[in-house]
Amino acid sequence: MDIQKAKLYSLEMFEDDPPEFIKSIVTLFVESTPVAIVAIKTAFAENEMEQLRHHSHKLKPHFAFFASTHIQQALQMIEDIARSNDGHENLPGLIDYVEKNSIPMIEQMKVDLLA
Questions:
Q1: Count of CB atoms within 10 A of residue 36's CB?
Q2: Which domain holds residue 93?
Q3: How many domains, in total, are found in the chain?
Q4: CB within 8 A of 62, min separation 6: which ones?
Q5: pLDDT (tens digit, 9 = 90+) per residue, 4-59?
Q6: Is residue 66 part of a domain?
Q7: CB under 8 Å to 39, separation ≥6 — which residues?
Q8: Is residue 27 domain-resident?
Q9: 64 CB-near residues (< 8 Å, 6+ apart)
């Protein structure tokens, strides 16, 4: 019995788009997401809450495009905490969650769509 590996993303939003466009969007996501996560981690390490809010806000819709709502929600929480003066102790776990859940998604996209 062959059990198919669960997809960590969806391309449903792009189902009517040409394959070249989808590949370009995925390539952009795969290349830019790790850089954005480093920017989030750096902003947190430097206690730059406005930059942390900005980077989280900017990255959030990218996960919405690929129906990764759990990561999108974690980024929303980071954004909300960075905007407020409360809950900063939760930021390391949320940032770690985003990073650790993004990596397998990106790796799966590379194999499925960019190989």
A1: 18
A2: 18-108
A3: 1
A4: 29, 32, 33, 36
A5: 457 899 999 999 999 999 999 999 999 999 999 999 999 999 999 999 999 999 99
A6: yes
A7: 51, 55
A8: yes
A9: 72
